[in-house]
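re the bet — no i am not wrong, look at it urself. input seq straight from the record:
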Amino acid sequence: MEIDKVRLNFDKNGIYILDITIALIMFGVALELKPDDFKRLFKQPKSALVGIFSQFLFMPLLTFLLVFSLKSTITPTIGLGMILVAACPGGNISNFMSALARGNVALSVSLTAFSSLGGLILTPLNFTFWGNLYIRTYSGIDGSAFIPPIEIDLFSVFITIVCIIGIPLFLGILFNTKFPKTTERIVVSVKRLSILAFAAIVIVIFSANFEHFVKFIKYIFFLVLVHNALALFMGYYVAKAFRLPKIDRKTISIETGIQNSALALVLLFNPVIFPQELNIGGMAFIAAWWGVWHIISGLSVASFWSGFSLKPRGSYAEVK
C-alpha cells in the first residue's frame, strides 16, 4: 500500500530536537519520583502486579492478536506500528489522568516509576519478540511482504531507550535526591517546558506532513481508535477479574491505554534500527496519530469517571 512508502518530512535537526525533548520529559518525570514510589509497589503487590502485567504482557499480546486477525486488511508496517506502540511504557500524562478520573494516584505514580525503569528492558524485549513473530507470521502468508526484510535489533533498541529514557531518569532521580529544595522550585517549570516543546514538535510534524495526513488518516483513524479503546477496556476488566477495587481498575485502565508513543517515533527515526531504505510509513503514521488520540480518549474517559469535573482529586503532593 502507498502509505508504507511514505516517509514523514522530518530532518535530522528535528530528530535531534525530538530526542532532546523526550529526554527532557523523562527528566521531568524523574524529578517527581521518590524512593517511596518504588516501595509502594511492594505495599500494594496485587494491584501493582496486575497493572504491570496488563501493560507489559496483556497489552502486547492483545495487540498481536488484533493485528493477526486484521492481517488481510492492513499492511505489515501498520501492524508493526501497533505492536511498537503497545511495547512502549506508559505515557507521562497518565498520572494527571488518574487524578482526574478519581483513580488511585499513588498506584499510578508507582506504576509510572516501574514502567519508566522496567521499560528499559521490557520495551525492547516485547517489540523484538512480538514484532519478529508478526513478521514471520505475515511473511508466511505473503513471502513478498517485506522487501527488504525488517530485522529488529534488540541491542540497538535497548541502547536508544537507555539514552533517551534511562540516562535522563537516572539524572532526574539523582538531582531530586541531592537537591530536593531546588527540585521543588523547578519541577513545574521543567514539566511545562517539556510538554510545550513536545506539543510544538507534534504541530511541526503534522504541519510538514499535512497532505500525507489528510490522504492517509482514513487508513489509521479507526485502527488507532479501536486499538486504544481495547487497551482501556482490557486494563479495566483485567483489574476487575482480579477483584481489584474500582479506584484501582480506573488507574490500571489508564496506565494500559496511555502509551509513550513519542518513544515509538524516536525509535522509528533511528536509522540504525530502521534504515532509510525501509518502507515504514504505516508505523510512523500509527505512532504519530496515537500520540494525539490517546490524549483525547484518556481525557474523555477520565472526565466521564470524574462526572465531567475538571478538578483532579489527588496529586503528587498528596501521595508523597
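see?? The longest helix spans residues 105-141. told u. also The two ends are 50 Å apart (CA to CA). so pay up
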